[in-house]
Amino acid sequence: MKAEFVNPFLEATIHVFNQLMQEPVVRGRTSIKKTPAPSHEIAIIFGVKGAVEGQIIYSMNAETAYKISEKLMPGTDRATLEKEYRDVLGEIGNMITGNALNVFYKTSKEIDLSVPYVMDVRTQAANVPDRQTLGLHLYTRVGMLELNIALG
Fold this sequence. Notes:
This protein is α+β, with helices and mostly antiparallel strands. It is built from three helices and seven strands; from the N terminus they run αβββααββββ. The protein has a single domain, classed as Chemotaxis protein chec (3-Layer(aba) Sandwich). Strands 1, 2, 3, 4, 5, 6 and 7 form a seven-stranded antiparallel sheet that branches. α1 crosses α3 and α2 crosses α3.
């Protein structure tokens, strides 16, 4: 998988967490996987079409999802966070998408990203096709994000 397709998503994620949440992001281990399926409870899924096709999937445990939501909605009670976290993560997904698209436009790569879909894999199956996937672990003070990039 070419860095020119991976780096925009990595850069966009780091930028959004740094700017929006004042959270530093530390890149952890990288692995090659046979599927982009999320390893954790909550997933943000993007479809990719254009110069490359595939999926970008962020996953995290539920506690991390709630902590991210709490950081962006300070003072909100836990019951409300549990109801609203999908909307918050969807907005973060939109911001990441927008930032990644800006990087692609600067390199003249024609890429179209779907609207992010936030799902709870505890209650809904993530039906994603097998495809060679680059898995990245990204660490923040609110928890770990898994970024799975399956493009070809």
